[in-house]
Write a structure and sequence with these properties.
With 127 residues, the protein is mostly beta strands. 0% of the residues lie in helices and 56% in strands.
Length: 127
């Protein structure tokens, strides 16, 4: 049985504008209280999005991928390490384990990725 409580969380998204520049934007994701795994207590769940596959990426310490568009729309979640992403508009952000990015810049100038912090990166990506 579902409850009536809702929550909202922030989601980082990378996208390409009409000029081919990639940007970060913070968006909100609504969560509804549901009895997802009875008899466990209710929890908060977002609407489902379809993923066809998932892969794990291991990027060695010191990895640098120069500017490139994403090969496909994907949700990347960092499991280990510290990741720096710079988008073509010049903004750079760092992500720590647990950080997720909805990557939608499949055209245009794209973004660069760098392993920082002295260890390899482990990323799970839903395609």
């Amino acid at each position: 049985m579902s409850g009536t409580e809702t929550r909202t969380i922030g989601v980082t998204r990378m996208y390409t504008d009409t000029e081919g520049e990639t940007h970060f934007v913070e968006e909100k994701l609504d969560l509804a209280e549901v009895n997802f795994a009875p008899p466990a207590p209710s929890m908060f769940l977002s609407a489902a999005t379809e993923a066809r596959a998932s892969v794990h990426l291991l990027l060695p310490d010191g990895y640098f991928g120069d500017f490139h568009p994403a090969p496909r729309k994907q949700l990347m979640t960092l499991l280990k390490g510290e990741l720096e992403v710079q988008v073509s508009d010049g903004e750079a952000r760092r992500f720590l384990p647990g950080g997720s990015v909805l990557v939608e810049d499949i055209t245009g100038k794209g973004h660069s990725t760098r392993s920082v912090g002295g260890e390899s990166l482990l990323i799970v990506t839903q395609l």
